[in-house]
Amino acid sequence: MLAYALRRTLLGLITVALVSAMIFFAVEALPGDACTAVLQRDAHGQRLENCRREMGLDRPATARYLDWVGGAIRGDLGASAGSGKAITELVGARLANTLLLAGLSMAVGVPLALLLGVVTALARDRAPDLVLSTVAILAMTIPEFVTATLLIFTFSVWLGWVPGIVLASADAPISTLFPTIWLPVAVLTMVMTAHILRTVRSSMIDVMEGDFVQMARLKGVPAWRVVWRHALPSALLPAINVVALTVAWLLGGVVVVEKVFNYPGLGRFMVDSITERDLPVVQGLALVVASAYVGVNLAADLLALLLDPRLRTARLRA
C-alpha cells in the first residue's frame, strides 16, 4: 500500500510539473508580455527594452521557466506586473476568502446531499425521488449565473433580506464577509448537492440490492441500522471522487459565481488579472489551482484505498 501511495504521489508531482510547463509556455505564447501591459501606449523603443531587462524578460524562456518553478517550490511566485506586490501575498488573502466560501458550502452541501441521496434511493421511483431528482437535474443544468441572478432578485432586490453583492475588500475580516456571503454559498451548495446527491442515490440503490444487505435484513437487523451502518458506508466510496472533484472545483474559485457577487476570492482575482493582462499573476493563480486540483484528487484516491479493502487488495496485486 505504501508503494502504491508513493507511486500516486510521484504521478501527482509529475502532473503538476507538466501542468506548470503548459501554463508557463501557454502564457509565453500570448501576444505581448508584462511590460506591454504595464507600459501600454509607451510600450516601444528604449522604455520597453529597459522594462524587459528589469523584469528579466530578455532572458531565454527556458531559463525563466526554471527560475519560476524554483521560486514556486520555495513559495515565491514572483511579483505582480501591475502593483509590484508579491503574488503569494496577493493570493493569500483571496485564497482564505475562497476557502471560507468553499468550507461553508461543503459544510452545508455534503451532509444535505448524503441525506437526500439516501432518501431518493429508499423512495426509488416514488414521489420524493421524482421531485428531488428533478430538482437536482435542474440545479445541475441551469448555469450558475442564472441561479445567482434569480437569488439576487428574490432575496436582495425583492425581499431585501441580504446584500446582493459583496463590497468588502480582499483583506476584510471574516466578520465583514459573513453577512454578505450567504447568496454565493447558496448557489454553490445547490450545484454541489445536486452532483453528490445523484452519485449517492445510484450507489445506494446498488448497495441496497447487495447480498450483505439482504442477509442483514433476514437476520432482523433494524432498517435504520441497515441503511446507516451497513449500506451508506459502502455507498460513500464511489462518492468520494465526486466530492474531491467538487472540492477542487470550489478551490478553483468558481469564477462565474465570484464575479457575479463581486466576491473577493481567487476566481474574481483571476478574471481581473486577465482583464489587466497581469500575466505573472495569471501564471501563479493557474499553478495554485492546478496544484490544489491534483492534491485533492490524490487525497481522494488514497482515502478510497484506505476505506475499501477490495480496492486495496486489487492495488496491492497490481
Write the layout of secondary structure elements.
Layout: H1 2-29, H2 34-39, H3 45-55, H4 61-73, H5 87-122, H6 127-141, H7 144-158, H8 174-177, H9 182-208, H10 211-218, H11 223-251, H12 255-260, H13 266-275, H14 279-307, H15 309-317
Helix pairs in contact: 1-14, 5-6, 5-9, 5-11, 6-9, 7-9, 9-11, 10-11, 11-14, 13-14, 14-15
Gist of the model:
With 318 residues, the protein is an all-alpha fold. The chain has helices at residues 2-29, 34-39, 45-55, 61-73, 87-122, 127-141, 144-158, 174-177, 182-208, 211-218, 223-251, 255-260, 266-275, 279-307, 309-317. It folds into two domains: 1-74 and 280-318, no CATH class; 90-276, MetI-like fold.
Structural write-up:
It is a single chain. This protein has 2 domains: 1-74 and 280-318, no CATH class; 90-276, MetI-like (MetI-like fold), CATH 1.10.3720.10. The radius of gyration is 24 Å and the shape is globular. Helices cover 77% and strands 0% of the residues. It has 318 residues and is mostly helical. The model has no long low-confidence stretch (mean pLDDT 80). Helix 6 packs across helix 9.
The mean pLDDT is 80
Helix content: over 70%
Unreliable sequence segments: none
Fourth-tier CATH superfamily name of the largest domain: MetI-like
Order of helices and strands: HHHHHHHHHHHHHHH
Q: Per DSSP, what share of the residues sits in E-state strands of 2 or more residues? A: under 5%
Number of domains: 2
- What is the overall number of helices? 15
Compute the separation of the termini in Å: 10 Å
